Amino acid sequence: MLTVHVLTGWDYPVWWDFLPLVLAYAVVAVTDRRGGTPDGQGVAREPVEVAVPVTGRWSALNSPADRTPSHGVHAHGQTYAIDVLAEPEPGARPAFARFRPLARRPRDFPAFDAPVLAVADATVVRAVDGQRDHLSRTSLPGLLYLTLVEGPIREMSGVHRLLGNHVVLDLGDGTYAAYAHLRHGSLTVREGDRVRAGQPIARCGNSGNSSEPHLHFQLMDAPDPDAARGVPFTWRGIGVPRNGETFEAAPPVTART
């Protein structure tokens, strides 16, 4: 814009300086919502019934039972994704703070280090570890930092920086289960491993684009979240909990050997 001013002498309004940035954000937002797929939508099919990936008392957040796409975008196969937070008892999870404390340690949250289970007999097609578990973003300044600074940087760095440590399972019939924000060093499986329903595969953490320790779970139609579309799910015996709804997941029957 400075070049236009120098060449023409036109005293353009100051807000024009920000126009390229606004347009860039608009392009990113549209692309992100389409998800890089032909129609930008999740797969139109009946929900796939799978086991629950956690045990104990948990609550749902960003649930597809309330809206789709559940996280506001179709990108990365997230159309029917859900977040779950451990709530062993009312008040056990630290509440959101306006200013203090600015951040909390992952261990302050009951979800941290909780076992994460295979939802079906499957093959591990992706097992990514190595990212640290960062402090929570559960204050107003922390949430603004996550939304305005950290989140966009992670988005530009690739899907692995958004998901953090993660596992993708091939459930068969063109369905894949993704588990995100896992604890650093907790993965017990490698790519190519066969797992049984109910088998522990990792532990819940706070890696990637996460405000606090929780499990992000989704089904997809491809193993690569960058190319996948979301697939609807239902958890056996529970269904799909709504936002804020608590549910109790019984311990699984011992995995077959």
* Radius of gyration over all CA atoms, rounded: 20 Å
- How much of the sequence is in beta strands? 15-25%
Distance between the termini: 67 Å
Q: Tell me, what is the CATH class of the largest domain? A: Mainly Beta
Total domains: 2
- Do you know the CATH topology of the largest domain? Glucose Permease (Domain IIA)
Q: Note the total helix count.
A: 4
The chain-level structural class is alpha+beta
Instruction: List the secondary-structure elements in sequence, H or E.
Output: HHEEEEEHHEEEEEEEE
Based on CA inertia axes, which overall geometry fits?
globular
Range of helix content: 10-25%
> How many strands in all?
13
Question: Sheet with the most strands?
Answer: 9 strands, antiparallel
Which stretches are poorly predicted, pLDDT < 50 over at least 5 residues? Answer: 1-39
> For the residues shown, what is the average pLDDT?
85
Q: What is the assigned CATH homologous superfamily of the largest domain?
A: Glucose Permease (Domain IIA)
Pfam families: Peptidase_M23
Organism: Streptomyces indiaensis
Protein name: M23 family metallopeptidase
Helix and strand topology:
Layout: H1 2-8, H2 19-34, E1 48-50, E2 56-61, E3 82-86, E4 115-117, E5 122-128, H3 140-157, H4 159-163, E6 165-172, E7 175-182, E8 194-195, E9 200-203, E10 215-220, E11 230-231, E12 233-235, E13 246-249
Parallel strand pairs: 1-12
Antiparallel strand pairs: 2-3, 2-13, 3-10, 4-9, 5-6, 5-8, 6-7, 7-10, 10-11
